Write the structure tokens for this entry.
Amino acid sequence: ARAKTAHGLRGVVSFHGSLDNPATLPASPASPASPPLLPPLEPPAAQVQALILHGNDDPFNPPERLAECMAGLDAAGIAFDVHVYSGAKHAFTRPEKTKPADLAGGFGYHPRAAARSWAAATAFLAQVLERPPPGRPPQ
């Protein structure tokens, strides 16, 4: 969502993140009264790519919130991929989230989702970082 103000940003990975529609976020976290980010983004910001790694059973980000986030990314011109892990709750990469209170609160470590999301993130970053930064010709 900050692609318009993050010079040189090429890729973003979200592990069980808070999913928002980028068009509804303020332009600056320090100034919440500032106007929202308005799609579409201008190049080179439009070259930013995003990878969203999401647990299907995340109570903090139900399917409609994921859909709103994806619609906002589309409207902003940000290329994105979404991987949804069945049976995974919020914080699925955190091995300490196994206590009954964690599970009751919507958190939970999920080994399969953790392993697959890490593999997806490392492959995504390798691909994104191998291309030259926006505004720079290939060498």
Remarks:
- Confidence is low (pLDDT under 50) at residues 34-40.
- The two ends are 29 Å apart (CA to CA).
- Strands lie at 11-15, 26-28, 31-36, 49-55, 79-85.
